[in-house]
Automatic annotation (TrEMBL):
This is Ribokinase-like domain-containing protein. Belongs to the carbohydrate kinase PfkB family. Residues 1-298 form the Carbohydrate kinase PfkB domain. It comes from the Bacteria.
Length: 320
């Protein structure tokens, strides 16, 4: 069975409990919640019962240990997490605006994650994993990007595969060198998982079908477009398949894309056909938004089966 590796930021998230634009006044917060897009992704893979590991760097502080404890509990190999004694774990402060969009304040670039470097433990993981998942955020800082691109070279050289979620927040789009690295990764992508307008990041075409054709022509085998509360679509040379979102009460949408991605990638690598994997991922994304905190809503396979049984009773259950 494949072991899935990801590289990148492990953060805590603190969420404002009132709506508004940013943090220029005192306000109540909840958290800290374990977070970081690659961490949420890998937690979801581990929770489903598949082999998964993360390469990252945290401070030797409560925020770092909160993450290590959660990932360990959920079955993730944490041997590649470097604990930096004199640095701090990165934070993401999130506040929802009245229109549902999110204002982020990140300390990622000034935290332990920004000085990620190639350790012997990280090198060992690159030799034992056959699939790499890259998030665009991990390409935004030179240290993380170097390690992610090294993992890509090593895993691809051994015949491994790559999934790529651009996960580009407007806050990081201007990071120096980011676009070149995004294109280097895109060129080697097997499964591309953009969200909304990220579909158009790498195409001159302004229409969805045109952008999909461009991406498939680059040699990408599968594209999964995440559409938030509008569901998701899967595209390959064999055609397209759309799925409506499942009806849930949205409490906190942050992390839905990562739970969706972890589920889709883990199940595809386990041999589950695209449409069934899409259905499971759609369920994981829906369950993720019902919980406050980005990693709080990751799902076990039993929870996904139970949720889908009510919606599609005719479908076979998936077992890990
Ligand atoms: P993030 O980067 O915040 O983790 P994202 O923007 O990458 O998220 P979304 O498109 O928001 O990803 O969500 C991923 C998937 O989760 C959607 O394609 C859908 O299947 C599911 N989902 C998201 N929001 C909802 C919702 N309100 N109701 C039901 N399902 C949802
Ligand atoms: Mg979203």
């Amino acid at each position: 069975m494949s072991k899935i590796l990801t590289v990148g930021e492990i953060l805590v998230e603190l969420v404002a409990t009132t709506r508004g634009d940013g943090f220029r006044e005192p306000q109540p917060l909840v958290g800290p919640f374990p977070s970081g897009a690659p961490a949420i992704f890998v937690d979801q893979v581990g929770k489903l019962g598949y082999e998964a590991a993360i390469i990252g760097r945290v401070g030797d502080d409560d925020f770092g240990h909160l993450n290590i404890a959660r990932l360990t509990r959920d079955g993730v190999d944490i041997s590649g997490i470097d604990v930096a004694p004199d640095e701090v774990t990165g934070c993401a402060f999130v506040r929802y605006r009245e229109d549902g969009s999110r204002a982020f304040l990140f300390t990622m670039a000034q935290s332990a994650t920004a000085t990620l470097n190639l350790t012997p433990a990280a090198t060992a993981l690159m030799a034992s994993c056959d699939h790499l998942h890259i998030m665009g955020t991990a390409l935004s800082a030179p240290g993380m990007a170097n390690v992610a691109l090294e993992a890509l070279r090593r895993i691809k050289a051994r015949g491994g595969t790559l999934s790529f979620d651009p996960n580009i927040r407007p806050e990081i789009l201007g990071a120096p060198g980011l676009r070149v690295r995004l294109l280097e990764v895109l060129d080697q992508t097997d499964i591309f998982m953009p969200s909304g307008d990220e579909l158009f990041l790498f195409s001159e075409r302004a229409d969805e079908a045109g952008a999909i054709d461009d991406l498939l022509a680059r040699g990408i085998r599968e594209i999964v477009l995440k559409r938030g509360a509008e569901g998701a679509s899967h595209f390959s040379v064999e055609g397209r398949h759309d799925i409506a979102a499942l009806s849930v009460r949205e409490v906190d949408p942050t992390g839905a894309g990562d739970s969706f991605g972890g589920t889709f990638v883990a199940l595809r690598l386990a041999g589950v056909p695209p449409v069934a994997a899409l259905r499971q991922a759609n369920a994981a994304g829906a369950l993720a938004v019902t919980r406050q905190g980005p990693m709080e809503g990751t799902s076990t396979q039993a929870a996904l089966n139970a949720f889908l049984k009510d919606t599609f009773p005719e479908d076979a259950e998936i077992s890990t």
